[in-house]
Amino acid sequence: MARLDAVRVRPVAAAAAHVPVRPGWQCAGCGEPWPCQVRRDRLLSEYAQNRAALGVYLGLHLADASSDLRREPAGDLYARFLGWLRPT
């Protein structure tokens, strides 16, 4: 069974954290669609040793976002949340 230790959230000021603001899924830190480039870079660094956990983390956000962003095409949401991950 997979462990999700990497999904742990640390308290950080919202503006500095680049966290999603629902229901529009904009970044609290910069206003770009979440995950913004800053958050993507941080996630790649934070999950460098556990890419599977990163995929799970983003997949959970994709599932949540799909219920909030019902008018967005599924392919666009996939590209936004998971399509940018580079192979290791």
| Overall 3D shape | globular
Q: Mean of the pLDDT scores?
A: 86
H/E order of the elements?
HEEHHH
**What fraction of residues sit in β-strands?**
under 5%
For the biggest β-sheet, the strand order reads 1-2
Number of strands: 2
Largest sheet: 2 strands, antiparallel
Poorly predicted regions: none
Helix content: 40-55%
Helix-strand makeup class: mainly alpha
- Assembly state: single chain
Spatial gap, N to C terminus: 22 Å
How many H/I helices? 4
Name its key features.
2 strands; mainly alpha; 4 helices; two-stranded antiparallel ribbon; 88 residues; 48% helix
Write the layout of secondary structure elements.
Blueprint: H1 14-17, E1 20-21, E2 26-27, H2 37-46, H3 51-68, H4 74-83
Antiparallel strand pairs: 1-2
Polypeptide structure, described:
It is globular, with a radius of gyration of 13 Å. 48% of the residues lie in helices and 5% in strands. Strands 1-2 form a two-stranded antiparallel ribbon. The chain has helices at residues 14-17, 37-46, 51-68, 74-83, and strands at 20-21, 26-27. It has 4 helices and 2 strands. The longest helix is centred in the last third of the chain and has 18 residues, at 51-68. The two termini are 22 Å apart. A hairpin with a 4-residue loop joins strand 1 and strand 2 (26-27). The mean pLDDT is 86. The chain is mostly helical and 88 residues long.
